[in-house]
Specification:
Distance between the termini: 16 Å
Structural class: mainly alpha
Order of helices and strands: HHH
Radius of gyration: 17 Å
Number of domains: 1
Number of helices: 3
Shape: extended
Largest sheet: none
Strand content: under 5%
Length: 93
């Protein structure tokens, strides 16, 4: 992995740490539509509505810490998927 990728990863982590307190508490677009149409709390959704970190929070942690950990988890997953797919699809010469 080159230095540019590491620098970009560090910048992303700093952005998560700084901007986490400003995360919106309003529902995202899909959740808002589900609320408006009245099927967000439907019983049949409870069987398939499983999340590792529901509502972008770490269970048991709230506030800044939970939001930061969720953001860092998202950054890590995205980074690992990107690197993995990059290695899979880009052939070395």
């Amino acid at each position: 992995m080159d230095r540019r990728a590491v620098r970009l990863l560090l910048v992303t982590v700093v952005v998560v740490l700084v901007l986490a307190p400003f995360a919106s508490s309003f529902p995202d677009g899909l959740e808002r539509v589900a609320e408006d149409l009245g099927f967000l709390s439907a019983n049949h959704m409870s069987e398939i509505n499983v999340a590792i970190m529901p509502d972008y929070e770490v269970p048991g942690l709230g506030g800044y810490t939970g939001t930061v950990l969720t953001g860092l988890f998202g950054v890590a997953v995205t980074f690992l998927l990107t690197v993995g797919l990059g290695k899979l699809f880009i052939q070395k010469k």
